[in-house]
UniProtKB/TrEMBL annotation:
Sequence ranges assigned to domain Core in this UniProt record: 6-102
Gene: erpA
GO annotation terms (biological process): iron-sulfur cluster assembly
Pfam families, alphabetized: Fe-S_biosyn
InterPro entries per the UniProt record, alphabetical: ATAP, ATAP_core_dom, FeS_cluster_insertion_CS, HesB-like_dom_sf
Protein name: Iron-sulfur cluster insertion protein ErpA
Domain of life of the source: Bacteria
Amino acid sequence: MQLPPKVTSRAFERLTEIGAGAEGKALRVAVEGGGCSGFQYDISLDEPAADDLVLAEGDQKVVVDPVSLPFLAGAVIDFTDELIGARFVIDNPNATSSCGCGTSFSI
């Protein structure tokens, strides 16, 4: 059995700040082919689908589609606000390498 991804309290706090749950939106974290390392993350605000894995805290939700789920098993979804910018980040134990920007990876 695969471990589901985890979402940090900072990520849920950021979703609250931007009002995602109040609009009925969830943070969608998906994996697509492409990027400089073979796969890339697609992070967006979206409506949850019936077959999504839903990770929730209060009215804030993070969703992962069934195809992306194996690529994100055991990953940690976080939010960082640094000098270079604020963004959602993924610490993925399945990635064997990643690009410098952190948006693409290989397995």
